[in-house]
Design goal:
Length: 311
């Protein structure tokens, strides 16, 4: 079996495992990586960009090297498929994202605002205590839009391009950005490398996610033309070069407006408006989950098709 065929099969099986079981519940490798990163930070941390670059290179390099070594050790085609499938399952987070989005909608529809506020931190870093039901729905929806790309499209993209090393390297990059890629007093300089590396790693996947979201807009009653217009007009106004694409195309596909006053624990930001129409409500959150799952499935099929062409 050619490497491309093994990769394609492994990506599809890993995607199916994520859809069936979600994240591994015990001994999750990503959690182990996070623990290792915290330990290393005690040694590498300095309030400088150079220290952050070293931190990034050591951790991403180590994980990528492990992926390369694993691929070299596994020679048999069945082993290649199994390795790719297990790695893909490990780095994906699509089912957990959709499940949390639906649970948020359930709590909001039942009037359980306290429960919805308790759930929000598992989706994003907003301050839930200052949000009402519609604010919680908007925060969850924006997180689902962005994380559809980060949690599924991007790892599948890099898996198709670079196999197991690509899957592991991307997840390491994205995890480090979530840990230290902030513009606060501690990480403004040290986290610069993590944030910029994550931006670069997501440039192509975010645009693939935006294109698929645009094409699949009719599945949730939207129009591709509206998603495309929101992308072209609004995405560049977002402070993130990648989240802007994901959120604007989702807003256009759903016929809603995202952005505006955004409450974080560190303060309040005024985000640019993305899309046209009313502010999102709970039914729109359910539509966003449906569209997210469709985008995830389409990406898996596209990634497998691309991998088949690899030599």
């Amino acid at each position: 079996m050619r490497t491309g065929t093994s990769t394609a099969a492994g990506l599809l099986i890993g995607f199916a495992l994520d859809r069936a079981f979600g994240d591994p519940r015990r001994w999750h490798p990503v959690a182990g990586f996070g623990s290792a990163a915290i330990m290393l930070e005690k040694t590498t941390y300095r309030d400088s960009r150079a220290a952050g670059v070293l931190h990034e290179v050591v951790l991403v390099g180590a994980v990528t090297g492990m992926g390369i070594a694993a691929q070299r050790v596994v020679r048999h085609a069945t082993g290649e498929v199994a390795l790719t499938a297990l790695t893909t399952w490990t780095v994906l987070g699509g089912r957990s994202l959709a499940r949390t989005g639906r649970e948020m909608a359930d709590r909001l529809e039942s009037g359980d605002i306290a429960g919805a506020r308790e759930l929000l931190p598992s989706l994003c870093g907003r301050d839930p205590e200052v949000l009402d039901a519609d604010g919680l729905a908007r925060a969850a929806l924006e997180s689902i839009a962005e994380n559809t790309s980060d949690a599924t499209v991007a790892p599948l993209f890099w898996g198709a391009v670079a196999g197991v090393p690509g899957l592991l390297a991307y997840r390491a990059i994205n995890t480090l950005d979530a840990m230290v890629g902030y513009r606060n007093d501690r990480y403004r300089h040290f986290g610069w490398a993590a944030a910029r590396t994550d931006d670069v790693a997501n440039l192509a996947p975010a645009r693939l996610s935006g294109a698929i979201t645009t094409a699949l807009a009719p599945l949730v009653g939207g129009r591709p033309a509206d998603a495309w217009r929101a992308w072209r007009r609004d995405a560049a106004n977002h402070p993130s070069p990648n989240a802007g694409v994901a959120e604007s195309t989702m807003a256009g596909a759903l016929g809603i407006r995202l952005g505006g006053r955004t409450h974080y624990r560190h303060g309040t930001e005024m985000r640019p408006t993305l899309g046209d129409g009313p502010a999102p409500r709970v039914p729109d959150l359910r539509r966003a989950v449906t569209l997210s799952e469709a985008v995830q499935l389409a990406t898996a099929l596209i990634a497998a098709t691309f991998a088949l062409r690899r030599r």
